[in-house]
């Protein structure tokens, strides 16, 4: 499709505007690395929340979610638990508050508070940096392949999709490098506004053009039903063989078993806390623990409703109007549904706005990821081991170089990434499986030490990388094994080395106030300060997690039901949101503390 000059003008104005914002806020980012990476703890929690939501609203993930809704219908609400999306609930309820109390700049710096400064602590710190870099490179590759596929759908064929991806990545890297977190946050707000308008327009367009009868004529039985049994019960064989082939290749047909697996995996990964990326960075950038919790909670509201309104709109338009000669292709890539809808069904002007909105989705996620990676390389490698006495100016320049280096390596990896689905599957089911065990233990077991953390993390990272050599093994199936290997390394490494110094443990426990197996440390903390109150909120926290998952899932289902005109089901979702919100107000919000 040749874009109309008006669409091209809208896209060009948007791209130039993002670079201008980077230069405008550059001066504010000069005040040192705390200003550059955390905004000097000056940014309001609700702005950080919108920025965090904008970073999560990425183009690769949106393409993936559209393909899931197209194939699986309402049951696709549960498939992103692979990620797991309800990690924001765990953060909201208690983990963001615990993390913010550390007053660290990065996850690796947090290690010093938890494990001290001995050799085990240094080893654990290095393992966090290694995981962060592997994770960021994987996310960069995931973003790169997504934006390349997105570009392929509608940009001129004069350049290859990967070349377009490199151009877009280059522009995003420029404004990210220039302004640090200030640039990321302020461009995120602009991008969020553009995406919000696109969400309303696309969802509204689908509601206007596609009636329930039109939708029912093109989807199999069970597509509009959110409930499920042991078997998926969505069969495309007669309507769309290519869709049925994709479902069978995904391996989700035994949906009951899949649901139990992703629920168990989701709880374990969520309980480990945020991975060292933009999500953790936004938490550490808040002003206090209360605002950290509120920031994570607001992400669910500002992210899921508009995003799924767009996803549902794109999917419904594709189901009703997309050319059958495309979808009947046995090798059709369902991740191309999103760009095809833009190419074929949006009018002049709206297409340009929509492309700008999805470029914004890519840029928000990509810039947040790169800024977080640079923080690890500069603060935890360059400053700590190479130039501890350098000036802030030098550290800022080092952050520029680190950002560019990460982008180059990540884009190179993107050339070898076959699809968004494959990249997502490996990141969330293989790489994070090795992250879960040591990062659960670090919060809840006093005997866990730096060497245990190091061996647990390295075992998990190596296991995930080895899995790449066995493409026939599904990462979700390998998750229990990889987590077991990581857990064995974590426990054995701890028990075969001495405990951490009691002063380190008491300082961490008294400041963070986690619940778990902290008996000996708790006793010392109370002996030193008889007024100290241990955390007895385990029951409240677990109750709020369950309520929060129901609350969040209703926010996902509500806009989908609205777009397909299922008003009774939408009303039920709204009622559930109301009841669970009132419950969380009483059992979570009213109990939040500033410190």
Q: Keywords, please?
A:
24 helices; Sodium/glucose cotransporter; 73% helix
Describe this structure in words.
The chain has about 600 residues and is mainly alpha-helical. It has one domain (about 5-225, about 240-415, about 535-590): Sodium/glucose cotransporter. It has 24 helices and no strands. α4 packs across α13 (about 290-320), α8 packs across α17 (about 390-415) and α13 runs parallel beside α23 (about 540-565). Mean pLDDT is about 85; it is low at about 30-40.
Looking at this structure, what is the CATH superfamily? Sodium/glucose cotransporter
Low-confidence stretches: 32-39
CATH class: Mainly Alpha
Helicity level: over 70%
So how many helices?
24
Largest sheet: none
Please tell me the overall pLDDT: 86
- What's the count of strands? 0
Walk me through the topology.
Elements: H1 5-25, H2 33-38, H3 45-56, H4 59-72, H5 87-100, H6 107-115, H7 119-152, H8 161-209, H9 212-216, H10 241-250, H11 255-271, H12 278-285, H13 289-321, H14 324-327, H15 337-345, H16 350-386, H17 392-414, H18 420-444, H19 450-467, H20 475-495, H21 502-512, H22 519-528, H23 538-563, H24 567-587
Helix pairs in contact: 1-8, 1-16, 3-8, 3-12, 3-13, 3-16, 4-7, 4-13, 5-11, 5-12, 5-13, 5-23, 6-7, 7-8, 7-16, 7-17, 7-18, 7-19, 8-13, 8-16, 8-17, 11-18, 12-13, 13-15, 13-23, 16-17, 18-19, 18-20, 19-20, 21-22, 23-24
